[in-house]
Write a structure and sequence with these properties.
Blueprint lengths: L2 E4 L14 E4 L2 E7 L14 H18 L7 E8 L5 H11 L6 E6 L9 E8 L2
Parallel strand pairs: 4-5
Antiparallel strand pairs: 1-2, 2-3, 3-6, 4-6
Helix pairs in contact: 1-2
């Protein structure tokens, strides 16, 4: 199966040796996105809700560059620094994702890149 990379100068820059999105057949695998403002490269805020919002916006930008949207997401994985923030992050998630919701996992982790509070990765499928 051939794979191809999603790239655009308007997308957040990868902070390591990885692709932001990789097509494998009809599936698009989007690397974990953190709350980095793509225009400045800075973390948007110390607020967990704002970080969740920006992480989702970064995922949405990669999907859009690939000709998809959040509606095409079939699986998401949230990595969060503190499970006590789950309800807040869940409320932000609900601002962006509609029924039928993608399958989802949420995992509390010890640390994330640049010490952010939230990271989101998704798998989407061509309609």
């Amino acid at each position: 199966m051939a794979k191809s990379v999603v790239a655009s100068p308007t997308l957040p820059k990868a902070i390591g040796p990885y692709s932001l999105g990789v097509w494998a057949g009809e599936l698009l695998f989007v690397s974990g996105q953190t709350p980095i403002d793509p225009a400045t490269g800075a973390i948007v805020s110390d607020d967990v809700a704002e970080q969740a919002r920006q992480s989702i916006k970064n995922v949405a930008a990669i999907l859009e560059a690939a000709g998809l949207s959040l509606d095409d997401v079939v699986k998401s994985t949230l990595f969060i620094k503190d499970m006590n923030a789950f309800a807040t992050i869940n409320a932000v998630y609900a601002e962006f994702f509609r029924e039928p919701y993608p399958a989802r996992s949420c995992v509390e982790v010890a640390r994330l890149p640049r010490d952010v509070l939230v990271e989101l990765e998704v798998v989407a499928k061509r309609p």
